Amino acid sequence: MAALCAMTVGLASPATAHAGEPDIIGRWMTKDHDGVFEISQCGQQVCGRLAGLRYTTDMPRDKRGEPECNLPMLNGFTPDPETQGHWNGHVTDPDTGHVYHAKLWVSQSGDLKLRGFVAVPLFGETETWTRYTGDIGPACKLP
């Protein structure tokens, strides 16, 4: 999770996606393997929530003191009109509450790319997430 927060400051593969669903739909493990996001269809948009976390004592909390479990952090993603397979939306930093522009897409290798940025994508950072097919325990705890 720390990596996502740092990144904001600076889904299923096509073979398994349901008909009509974007290929970003599904569960994705963050680059540091400390969080799993579940990306789903939210009406005409795509959104994502923090569905799983690695933690040893207490559940991590956002800036308001709310548990990060099921926290919606990827919001308002719509298809990029200029680049097929890319999605434009927003990512929320749970530590500060700041909202940043973001892009999502699935690379040719099948990994999910998340680019968070302020104003223009040139001044952002891209993370690579991998598909997650494991279990998530009670209270969003990852094994």
From TrEMBL:
<dbReference type="Pfam" id="PF09917">
    <property type="entry name" value="DUF2147"/>
</dbReference>
<feature type="signal peptide">
    <location>
        <begin position="1"/>
        <end position="19"/>
    </location>
</feature>
<protein>
    <recommendedName>
        <fullName>DUF2147 domain-containing protein</fullName>
    </recommendedName>
</protein>
<keyword id="KW-0732">Signal</keyword>
<feature type="domain" description="DUF2147">
    <location>
        <begin position="26"/>
        <end position="131"/>
    </location>
</feature>
<dbReference type="InterPro" id="IPR019223">
    <property type="entry name" value="DUF2147"/>
</dbReference>
